Amino acid sequence: MSSVTVPKKRSIWDGGVSPMNVSYGKMMMWFFLLSDAFTFSGLLITYGMLRYAHPAYEGDPDNFTFSTEYWPIPEKVYAAVPFLEGVHLPLVFVGIMTFILILSSVTMVLAVEAGHRMDQKDVEKWMLWTILGGIAFLSCQAWEWTHFIHGEPPGTRMPDGTIFMGANLVQNQYGPPAFADLFFFITGFHGFHVFSGVMLNIIIFYQVATGVMQRRGHYEMVEKVGLYWHFVDLVWVFVFTFFYLV
Amino acid sequence: MAHSENLTPEEAHKANVRRIWTVTGILAGVTALEFLLAFTMPAGIARNMIFVIMTFIKAFYIVAEFMHLRHEVKVLIWSIVLPCAFVVWLVIALLVEGSSIFAK
Fold this sequence. Notes:
The structure holds 2 protein chains of 2 kinds.
Chain A: H1 24-52, H2 74-77, H3 92-116, H4 120-150, E1 156-157, E2 163-164, H5 177-209, H6 212-216, H7 220-245
Helix pairs in contact in A: 1-5, 1-7, 3-4, 3-7, 4-5, 5-7
Chain B: H1 9-40, H2 45-66, H3 74-101
């Protein structure tokens, strides 16, 4: 049988072109972030499941006191601000952290925009602001963790009758042990992502500053770390709602 | 990043930066509104639903504009959005099933 070549309509999936119209590295960053989104979903689903496995506080929110018997009202737990010890300012500090992260996301997207214009000085400037924003966020988180771990007087009576102040993985003054465990795991896992993001940003900032991207002719690495950085901000948007607000 | 072909680089730059700050304004505004509701509205299902909707509005703007997904080709958009839609399904399914496991 003679081979007959039938002219066939070629699809974009037949090879030779990039069907998703992005580079390999950028596409892989997207799919890595998708898998990371699954991990964070798992953590937040666990939070929802464990929270509803515990009784909720039934009384008047104004008379709320900490107890290991029921799940605490989040805004009663996160009510401290540095230098204002003892003043009840619910969600103010976590609000400041949220704005720091949103603003660092904005400076990142401005760095990407400067990269499209091949403007090395602007990329450097905006990446430096992004790194500073990341470090500021991590510092805030360090303070928040310290406050959470050390607790505030007078402490709460534990099931064994002792008074305990602060929190660790086994017991905490704010509510059932699972509450502190989830706080450490979820904000810790997110904080580790922020830390990794700052490290990646510093590496890319160094390469930008030494002119590597300018010689390469494009700033796509800035876009890739930018994607990661925005994802970190995106996760915080969900953590903020489901951990602090709801 | 230029979304219009007829702009000079300088105009495109200005338009992009304006767009970025518009999105920033939306994100900051929605977050500020969430704070306002946290202190003025009684806690309950209604307030939680508003918080969830606002979270998705913010997520949309971050992914679509900051991560630039809105301007990618359709195949890439769907390969990211569709798996996430299944996760949302999983969340709803687990909350419904979970409440029957722990029902008293």
